[in-house]
UniProtKB/TrEMBL annotation, chains A, B, C, D, E:
UniProt cross-references to NCBIfam families, sorted A to Z: carboxysome_B (TIGR02704)
Subcellular location: Bacterial microcompartment
Gene3D superfamilies found in the cross-reference section: EutN/Ccml
Keyword Nucleotide-binding attributed: no
Protein's organism: Thiomicrorhabdus lithotrophica
Keywords: Bacterial microcompartment
Lineage: Bacteria, Pseudomonadati, Pseudomonadota, Gammaproteobacteria, Thiotrichales
Name of the protein this chain belongs to: Carboxysome peptide B
Top-level taxon: Bacteria
Predominant cellular place of this UniProt entry's protein: other
Length: 81, 81, 81, 81, 81
């Protein structure tokens, strides 16, 4: 898993049906890369979270059918990057 | 998932049968890398999209038998890179 | 698999139910990157470990339902980085 | 998927039985990295190809039992890197 | 797949039961990174090998239950890096 900071919700013109209804969040990695994840927890911009990738990301989103390769797994307490 | 910009359709001399009939698009990552993805949505060059990787990419293409590790998942509204 | 050094336990404000009850550890890679893994072995800060990624990480955590993409697989004897 | 150029066939002293009988090719990525892929298409050195990674690579090789994480998926027409 | 050089066997203080009894080898990538793989072939330090990652790595190790994400797939003849 990796540690990311939540930046904003992603606004989508169109998306595949099987993304479900979870919010899609833009995240920054600790090395500055931009990533996108499903958020089943309800994070706020500025929160530090850890994310789960690949096949476990689909179950983490709450349903194996969800189309994701990255899902927020938890909010980190008092993270000092 | 990651954020990419659509560049062009890829012209192929030959391809495996089980790619299906979806267009294959060349994408640029935000760090400048070149990637290739199936496009079930019908994006245009210049569109900013997010892409889904690995096992979820196959379902995202519409059929688990499709041979892909990267599929366009949605078009992003007003993205400022 | 990769070689990582254990830094600390991760304190979480909230986490998904299906992480199980294993401790979540912050690790450093040999190139300085920060990662997060489930720890079924009981490592201490400073230990050098190898980690197992992706689908095998879930079985390594002791249960295929666990939501992880990285799990500590063993402690390395006398590692000189 | 990624775009690679075919360099040469790989000569092997020994290999696992379940690689099947497909040729194993050395590829260069657009950033200069060296990779190895199964080639079910019959490419020649100098060809530009796109490659399919991870679980789809096994099906792309023609049989889910094949032991590969990267398979050539098609030859690209007139690629200007 | 990738090309790696075998450095040494890894000595482990403790490891998960389901690693099986295969030796665990430390490898160097062509870009200098350090990796760890199961070795079902019996390589020697200095051998150039190619490695298989992720789900195929488990079957390559000889048993789908083995906990690995990287397995040696074959020894390369006369590799000049």
């Amino acid at each position: 898993m990796e540690i990311h900071q939540v930046k904003q919700q992603l606004l989508l013109t169109s998306r595949l049906d099987d993304m479900g209804h979870l919010p899609v969040k833009v995240l920054k990695s600790m090395s500055g890369a931009t990533l996108v994840a499903l958020d089943p927890i309800g994070t706020k911009p500025g929160d530090w979270v850890f994310t789960i990738a690949n096949s476990a990301a689909r179950d983490a989103a709450g349903d194996k059918r969800y189309l994701t390769d990255l899902t927020v797994g938890g909010i980190i307490d008092n993270w000092q990057p």
